[in-house]
């Protein structure tokens, strides 16, 4: 099908996709403007796949597939890197799997960290916290993240014995080499702080992200570790799946969104719900398809 694709519509779609707005949300907005549901889904799906390849379509005539789900379906048949056992070997401890979700591929883990490790990570991170920055999709520059009202810092890989112990635990659990991991990021969310729906994989919409993917491959999975019990709010919400994970000290949620074909699963879109009372501390580890080489 060929549809007219004005410049303002093109720019609006691309801007929303590059900042991580879920395709379903954009489709609903088009439908609210009286665009037929099938056509809206087809347009968004076509543009989303183009943006993911780093080649947003030009304005003018847009060729869209009327059956967008079949256009480039994410192959999610691959099993979780964690395997299917109810109790996992993390090397220096056993970790229980509390729940799994097929799509997106998610596992909720109990006891990945103990109370002392959580407290120690917070103590090490606290004096190094700064406003969270992200790569601006247009300029490629690091800017303060408007969609993440939190403070954070990064540990270097293997920076301390504690960091190394946790990283080797994650390597044992996932089977993904330690060298494929980015440095652990610790985040603090104060009351009212949140992160809006976003993807963890990199959208190749700017030079910085494309260079990062070229150096280290795409992000393929994430381990989010909860460092404290949140008094109220602060859940990790997988918005398209309707799954909400409560933050509990020592627990973790692991989710993967990259497959052997190099595809990234848009169903992995997630958000950090607002903290309603108390604070929320998490430690995040992103894992890559290849050895991680940081930007020089």
Automatic annotation (TrEMBL):
Which keywords accompany this UniProt record?
Dioxygenase, Iron, Metal-binding, Oxidoreductase, Vitamin C
What this protein needs as a cofactor is: L-ascorbate
Fe2OG dioxygenase domain segment(s): 180-289
Its recorded name reads: Proline dioxygenase
GO molecular function per UniProt:
iron ion binding; L-ascorbic acid binding; procollagen-proline 4-dioxygenase activity
